[in-house]
Amino acid sequence: MTVDPPIRLADPADADEIAAMSREFIEHGLPWTWRPGRVLKAILNPETNVAVIRAERGLVAFGIMEYLESDAYLVLLAVRAESRRRGFGSALLEWLEASASVAGAQRIRLDARRDNAAARTFYNEHGYHEVAINRGRYSDGVDGIRLEKWLRPANAR
């Protein structure tokens, strides 16, 4: 899927806005751990992709994906509330999945709050399967749900 404005890798100047969006849309009600310094480290890390969609009004969406030995881990993905249901999240996820595939990842894993039905539905609609419940995963006592999507069979090299 192509979006306008296009998806691009984040640069250091994006760190503050990404951190603010993480706090507002992902870490609400939790301790703020994705502060600008941590986001900047992710942007500069060669084992991590931080992708963004920017418009004239600022940051629309972002995603952070870490590359592990044979898997990729989708750390964060967020779209501004006023830009949701317009394809930005889907396009960003597909871009990150394609990047993970090119990097050789066999599967992508992610965690979502058990009480976040919208996120769980979004990922289910994109081929992710719920594989485990992590009781008390989040600091507010909410359970986490581990989701994964296989990009190629486990025995493929």
SSE topology sketch:
Elements: E1 7-9, H1 15-26, H2 36-44, E2 48-55, E3 58-67, E4 71-79, H3 88-102, E5 107-113, H4 117-125, E6 129-134, E7 144-150
Parallel strand pairs: 4-5
Antiparallel strand pairs: 1-2, 2-3, 3-4, 5-7, 6-7
Helix pairs in contact: 1-2
Mean of residue pLDDT values: 89
- Which spans of ≥5 residues are poorly predicted at pLDDT below 50? none
- By CATH, the architecture of the domain at 7-110 is named 3-Layer(aba) Sandwich
Strand-and-helix sequence, N→C? EHHEEEHEHEE
* Strand-residue proportion: 25-35%
Apparent shape:
globular
Q: What percentage of residues falls in helices of 4 or more residues?
A: 25-40%
N/C terminus separation: 27 Å
Please, what is the CATH homologous superfamily of the domain at 7-110? Gcn5-related N-acetyltransferase (GNAT)
Please outline the major beta sheet.
7 strands, mixed
How is the quaternary structure best described? single chain
Domain N-acetyltransferase: 5-152
InterPro entries: Acyl_CoA_acyltransferase, Bact_Acetyltransf, GNAT_dom
GO molecular function, one term: acyltransferase activity, transferring groups other than amino-acyl groups
Protein name: GNAT family N-acetyltransferase
Write structural notes for this entry:
The structure is a single chain. The protein is of the alpha+beta class. It has a domain at 7-110: 3-Layer(aba) Sandwich (Aminopeptidase), CATH 3.40.630.30. Helices cover 29% and strands 32% of the residues. It has four helices and seven strands. It has helices at residues 15-26, 36-44, 88-102, 117-125, and strands at residues 7-9, 48-55, 58-67, 71-79, 107-113, 129-134, 144-150. Strands 1-2-3-4-5-7-6 form a seven-stranded mixed sheet, with helices on both faces. A hairpin with a 2-residue loop joins strand 2 and strand 3 (58-67). Helix 1 packs across helix 2 (36-44). The longest helix has 15 residues, at 88-102. The protein is globular and about 40 Å long. 29% of the residues are buried.
